[in-house]
Amino acid sequence: MSMQDRRVKRTQRRLASALIELTLEKGFDAVTIRDITERADVGYATFFRHYKDKHELLKDILDVVLIELVELLRSARPASAPDSTGVLIFRYVQEHHEVIRALLGTYNVRQQILKAATATTLNETGPRPGSIVPLEIASYHIVASSIALIEWWLDHNMPYPIELMGNVYEELIARPTNEAALLPKEQPSQ
């Protein structure tokens, strides 16, 4: 990686960190580009070399989080027991809690997360034979319920350990939804 590439990445990380901090402090709508550049200690004009507005910066942050989560969960499926999925999700949330709080606290972004994660679930699962629950409803349910559980945990300052939250996720959300309606595509039907 060239020195220029490293500088670009460093600037983008600083801008992203500033946006997350400011969003948590005063809400996304109240944050200005001037606020972001001052917090990041980056020139105002420099911001516009990387992003056209704060929404584009937020989308960049969201894209990174979604890619990381999808890769994390895909890598866990074949090698790990299914009950580890919840632990992986909550470990990621704990490690990135400020970013997750900021993203979920922004309504349009929350809706984008719901839409993108539901689409991923639809692509990676199939209907359970004999289920009366349509695949699109089950996919939406598992994602929306997961977001609600994550929000509860964050809103209550993560009162329970990630292992317990992973098990709660499995017992309340993943297992019942999978048993009622979803099959992973790589798993043969029975």
TrEMBL record:
PANTHER family registered for this protein in UniProt: ACREF/ENVCD OPERON REPRESSOR-RELATED, TETR-FAMILY TRANSCRIPTIONAL REGULATOR
Gene3D superfamilies: Tetracycline Repressor, domain 2
UniProt cross-references to PROSITE patterns, sorted A to Z: HTH_TETR_2
Alphabetical UniProt keywords: DNA-binding
GO molecular function: DNA binding
Name recorded for this polypeptide: TetR family transcriptional regulator
Pfam families in alphabetical order: TetR_N (PF00440)
UniProt domain HTH tetR-type: residue ranges: 9-69
SUPFAM superfamilies in the cross-refs: Homeodomain-like
InterPro entries assigned to the protein according to its UniProt record, in alphabetical order: Homeodomain-like_sf (IPR009057), HTH-type_Tx_Regulator (IPR050624), HTH_TetR (IPR001647)
Regions recorded as binding DNA: 32-51
Protein origin, superkingdom: Bacteria
